[in-house]
């Protein structure tokens, strides 16, 4: 209980985003003041709703932030129009509210777009409850929200232009920071292993940033394309370091470290006119591939624009296919969306059936609880939401007792919107105080009714919404992730076995589109597995010790995927004969059956792969981890 209270009080100063808070305050304030001064307050209010799309611009690349704001603008506009059209028909209103909530929740979670999820879709759809009933104005209201979204988009574009360094450039520099750590920890096997634990995640983050920034090759700047080449080259260096580590070729020659240091400084200086490394490298033959990879980085920095465009292979993100691939009961995101739909559906039913005055507050509260990363995180959000709402209502009630002028209410609304964005990452309980004031004022101004009567009833609404969400999670979210996890791990083993056969079999069938599709499927399955592990760790009734035993295998599978991806990009990889292939496929299947139904793991000595010894080592290490866990259980029993 004490740890739960501490989690509610924990304030992370590093996550305070004052710049975003200031931008949101300005975005809300301008349309509201213009609406008030021109005696078109409803129009100004609707435009300010559209500016809330700015809240979805959390991290990510410039292109990704512009993309999500534009799509969120369209979504909020549609939500506003549908709410306006159906306000007189409670059953249809409730059904559409469920749809408008569940679809954004599923899409945003499956694409890993962090932020408020469907929160402002609920707000936009439900605002019509407080506006005059006027279905004929649905297009006007939708257009006003769209204008507000475009205003937010312009502000984000300006912020992107004023940014000193792009997110993708920072991500690539993180790649090279990681390479430096790996190189200087290489001589100590355990230290190198520890550094490698974060390396895959670092390179994956850079890959994600670069992918979400990608468009057609003809539209990309040479600077961005150079970043792609530098990222790919960094992966090559990491791959060679892994291979050298497995062959225990230590220590790393000082000349190699010095050369890598020099090249990394060139990457960080952003100065492609600096001199290339011109010293003679005299190292044993075993290190030649690593040296060649470092020379490749040096050469990339000197490529002219035309040569950069010739060398690069720009990938375009396939968002639609990612979403479709998650439309299966094997997907943790899809199962979460089904659970979410049931609980939100119950919240909407209760709100409408019992005729709560501001019916949307109950599903809105349930939603804010359910968007936690896992069950325990959702319970923390439930406490934060309750405490923050009660404090917010008390503060606002005190303010409303003095009957503030509309202009004061407008300024307070804008400031609270900004405070929410500034502090929501640092402490959700604290941010909930401002969220509560913001949403109540928003609806009070819409109804032209700013009295204490609009504030106090919200406490009951929030308590009901929290209760529905918590009970729903206890019933529907007991052990879903922990039950699914072993079978999903088995599925990943089989997917990697298929990829392994495709890459190293002598029956070669080269196809760029097929390569891309196979890696996408494997990436999604790995993503699903990682999310299940996070979810299982946060379940109330799961065996935490048992869940944590899966981590070495999950990490090993992620490393295997990385090496398979490297092999995919190597057209000159060596193929293996059917006997060796059979040994590897049997190993993959044995491990899959072990997780699927507790099958016995056969001790197989795998023959080394000609170019990718680390794949052999990673598979062997996974097997040893599984045997170690099994022996520990036998000894315990």
Written description of the protein model:
The chain has 637 residues and is an all-alpha fold. It has helices at 2-9, 18-37, 41-50, 62-86, 90-110, 119-126, 138-162, 167-184, 189-212, 222-246, 254-269, 288-302, 305-311, 319-325, 332-353, 361-370, 375-400, 406-423, 428-447, 457-476, 480-504, 512-537, 544-548, 551-568, 578-597, 613-636. The chain has four domains: 1-15 and 355-476, no CATH class; 40-163, no CATH class; 167-212 and 215-311, no CATH class; 480-636, no CATH class.
Low-confidence stretches: none
- End-to-end Cα distance, whole Å, is 32 Å
Q: What are the secondary-structure elements, in order, as H or E?
A: HHHHHHHHHHHHHHHHHHHHHHHHHH
The tally of strands reads 0
Question: Mean of residue pLDDT?
Answer: 87
The number of distinct structural domains comes to: 4
Beta fraction: under 5%
Please identify the structural class as seen in this structure. mainly alpha
Main β-sheet description:
none
Question: Helical residue percent?
Answer: over 70%
Compute the number of helices: 26
- Morphology: globular
User: What Rg, in angstroms, do the CA atoms define?
Assistant: 27 Å
